[in-house]
Amino acid sequence: MGAGKTTVGRILARRLNKRFIDCDHEIEARTGASISVIFEFEGETGFRQREAEVIRDLTGQSDIVLATGGGAILKPENREYLKTRGTVIYLRASINSILQRTSHDKNRPLLQTADPRQRIEQLAKEREPYYLEVADFIIETGRPNVQSLVQTILSQLEQHAQSVETAQQPPEMDDEPNQHS
After folding, report:
1. pLDDT tens digits for 53-96?
2. What is the dihedral of CA 8, 14, 19, 21, to 10 degrees?
3. Please, what's the largest Cα pairwise distance for the chain?
4. Do the Cβ atoms of 58 and 64 come closer than 8 Å?
5. What does the radius of gyration of the chain's CA atoms come to, in whole angstroms?
6. Residue 86: which residues within 8 A CB-CB, separation 6 or more?
7. Alpha carbon of 133 to those of 19, 70, 74, 88, 148: distances in Å?
8. What backbone phi and psi angles, to 5 degrees, belong to 97?
9. Phi-psi region for residue 43, left (φ > 0), alpha (ψ -120 to 50) or beta?
C-alpha cells in the first residue's frame, strides 16, 4: 500500500518489454465499480474474493508485470499463485513514506480512519511475514528516484535469472570412470 507498485511497475514493464497490469485497475474494469464502492457494498471479504479470482487469472499469463494490492498476500492461494507462477518483488516502504504517499488519497478504504498512521503500522505488522514468505527479493523504496529504483530491480532480476539458470544446469561429469579398489 503506497509503496509505488503501479508507478514502478509501469516503468519496469516498459524496460522489460512486457505488458503492465495493475490488479486493482483490472478488478475495477471487470466490475465496473471502484475499489471504494466494492468495499462499501461487499466489504473487504468480497473485495478479497474478487482480487483472488483476478490474481488466479493474471498469474496464468506470461510476459506481464503485475502490481497487486498490498493485501493480496493475505489469502494463501494468492501467495501460492504469486510464488509459483512468477518472480515476486517486494517493494518495502517506510511507514512515513506510505503515510505521505497516501495521505490525500480517498480511494484507499482501509485508511479512511481517524488514525491512518496506526492503521498503516497495523497492516504492515500483519502483512510483513507474508511479503517475506513470497518475495524472491526485497527492494527498499527509499532510492533517490524511480528510475534508480527500477534499475536496482533490473539488476536483481538479472542476478535472479542467472542463479536460476545455474541451478538448472546438470552437474559436470568427470571424464574418468569411477575406479574402485
Report:
1. 999 999 999 999 999 988 899 999 999 999 999 999 999 888 77
2. 20
3. 79
4. yes
5. 20
6. 59, 66
7. 26, 14, 11, 10, 25
8. -65, -45
9. left
What is the spatial distance between Cα 94 and Cα 162, in angstroms, rounded to a whole number? 30
- For residue 141 the three cell numbers come to 523504496
Global pTM?
0.80
Domains along the chain? 5-154 (3.40.50.300)
Confidence of residue 47 (pLDDT cuts 50, 70, 90): very high
Torsion of CA 25, 27, 32, 34, to 10 degrees: -70
- Taking each helix axis from N to C terminus, what angle separates 95-102 and 116-134, rounded to the nearest 10 degrees? 120
Cβ pair 157, 137 in contact under 8 A: no
C-alpha cell at 86: 512468477
What letter represents residue 117's amino acid?
Answer: R
Cell numbers describing residue 175 = 571424464
Q: What sign has the CA pseudo-torsion 77, 68, 32, 119?
A: positive
